[in-house]
Amino acid sequence: MYGQFVAGKTYRLRISNVGLQNSLNFRIQNHKMKLVEVEGTHTLQTTYSSLDVHVGQSYSVLFTADQPGQDYYIVVSSRFTNPVLTTTGTLHYSNSAGSVSGPPPGGPTIQIDWSLNQARSIRTNLTASGPRPNPQGSYHYGMINTTRTIILANSAGQVNGKQRYGINSVSYVQPDTPMKLADFFKISGVFKENSISDRPTGGGLYLDTSVLTVDYRSFVEIVFQNDEDIMQSWHLDGYQFFVVGMDGGQWTKSSKAQYNLRDGVARSTIQVYPKSWSAIYVPLDNVGMWNLRTEFWARQYLGQQFYLRVFTTSTSLRDEYPIPKNALLCGRASGRRTRPL
């Protein structure tokens, strides 16, 4: 990366981790970064000297070219890895009098507490997006009672002599027909409702096309429990959710006492630190079959995912549009007829 910047001006950077496995730390030599946005959410404008960006996450930061005119390192290094992998770019002032010199600035390497505390400091700016007498408008996620708690634990193991990964003891297997088509046409044999438990079972891994059915318009709590020594990152299609808590060790009901029920950030991907847990609140307002998966792509491919079936008996177009009549149908849905859109 090589950019030319004018002294005294402020710039916005969009930082995304589109990697397959590792969390990253981003920093600019001798410059501070002011966080202003996370995945569409305005944040408290906290200033950082470096920023951890986990797999699948995006941040917007502001920085001012307020240093003496020369070139500076832009550094990205892996987090929680041995060895630490580092790459650099150059921030070039338009009036630069010299190139970068010396070693790139060092950053955090394996300090989980440092990263955890930084993650907790990322919160929603309740006064952004115009004046309003009632912060968050009329929507206060912390004042809504959750109707269900789902606890998801990741694990690894052997199934039929091959390495697999799973959630709550189930390692996902792709069916021969897309899940949404099977659900829409009520095709039996593609998947079973609730073929994955909403709690860790403690049993060994087994193969299944895992689907968990939840009620449309319910408000659920999902806890990601990571008992392994690796960093995890989870994504839920079709939704943004509120990050309410994260900590080390085992999640229990008493962990709710430390939840942020006021200004937790809304996002679509959440990190879970080694031997730790993270909790989110999700308003299930989008009918459909939604993939919930690890962003550790080797694990995702080998079974660490499942489908959240947000279901209603209603057939109203207000709740869900039908499949378009020109949709391409495959698998056991081939030759079926869709309703006209």
Automatic annotation (TrEMBL):
Entries under SUPFAM superfamilies matching the protein: Cupredoxins
An annotated Gene Ontology molecular function: oxidoreductase activity
Species the sequence originates in: Turnera subulata
Protein name: Plastocyanin-like domain-containing protein
Domain Plastocyanin-like: 5-96, 176-313
Keyword Cytoplasm: no
UniProt cross-references to InterPro entries, sorted A to Z: Cu-oxidase_2nd, Cu-oxidase_C, Cu-oxidase_fam, Cupredoxin, CuRO_3_AO-like
Record family assignment: Belongs to the multicopper oxidase family.
UniProt cross-references to Gene3D superfamilies, sorted A to Z: Cupredoxins - blue copper proteins (2.60.40.420)
Domain of life per record: Eukaryota
